[in-house]
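Retry 2 of 3 after timeout on previous attempt. Resubmitting structure tokens to design endpoint.
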């Protein structure tokens, strides 16, 4: 009986450690997806036509800051964690990470280019019309990126979380 209790205790400890490890990942992904929602909200707010030049520039600056934060968190935190999970639990997951990464990198380069352009034009932009084509292209790229990111999360994280428990 004592052995069963010890065994159950060890199992509970392992399960708790697993939950803590992957629960942290859930929290990381949750915060990152919340940041994505803020990014989308700010991108949509840039298309409003009845705002002043100063309000537009303020929104644009906020958008660029969130964009860089989102990309950085994705690259250095979320993707790194998903790749770690894939290596730990599912070799097909690492293949998916490697297959999708070049597309994510293209999106990152486009977004960084947009941010650089905004920095060059700081104060000279009066409305979304000044950046219409760039905003449209960035919006399309981000939409595709979000879809790829969701695929990574769905396949790698959810399958590894199920295996861990």
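Retry 2 succeeded. Sequence:
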């Amino acid at each position: 009986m004592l052995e069963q209790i010890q065994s159950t205790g060890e199992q509970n400890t392992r399960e708790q450690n697993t939950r803590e490890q992957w629960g942290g990942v859930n929290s990381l992904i949750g915060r990152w997806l919340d940041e994505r929602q803020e990014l989308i909200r700010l991108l949509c707010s840039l298309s409003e036509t009845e705002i002043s030049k100063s309000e537009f520039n303020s929104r644009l600056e906020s958008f660029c800051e969130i964009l860089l934060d989102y990309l950085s968190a994705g690259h250095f935190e979320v993707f790194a964690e998903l790749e770690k999970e894939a290596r730990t639990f599912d070799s097909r997951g690492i293949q998916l990470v490697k297959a999708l990464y070049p597309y994510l990198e293209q999106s990152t380069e486009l977004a960084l280019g947009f941010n650089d352009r905004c920095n060059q034009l700081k104060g000279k932009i009066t409305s979304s019309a000044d950046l219409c084509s760039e905003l449209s292209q960035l919006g399309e790229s981000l939409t595709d990126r979000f879809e790829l990111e969701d695929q990574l999360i769905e396949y790698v994280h959810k399958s590894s979380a199920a295996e861990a428990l």
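Attempt log closed. DSSP finds four helices and no strands in the chain.
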